[in-house]
Design brief:
This protein is an alpha+beta fold. The protein is built from three helices and two strands, in the order ααββα.
């Protein structure tokens, strides 16, 4: 994924998430696979918390997510949500 596409994806995910209202990966708009890649990036950056399930398939950055529940923005993530 190109840097500009990844940046747009992360911004899109951040705008859909909240500090107080937990979301599921299934309730996010956009392509499910792209969203899961973006959520993994946000988790690695400590911008979200929640319950994350990983599959057996991995890429160079690690195991791929299969789903996420109870996703909330962290304080760090909330700084970029405005």
């Amino acid at each position: 994924m190109l840097i500009q596409e990844n940046s747009a994806l992360l911004k899109s995910l951040i705008t859909q998430l909240s500090v107080v209202e937990a979301r599921s990966s299934f309730s996010l708009t956009g392509d499910m696979d792209d969203n899961l890649l973006g959520l993994r990036d946000l988790l690695d950056l400590e911008m979200i918390t929640g319950e994350f399930r990983y599959g057996l398939i991995a890429d160079p950055l690690g195991c791929l997510l299969t789903s996420a529940e109870g996703i909330l923005l962290t304080r760090r993530g909330s700084l970029l949500s405005n």
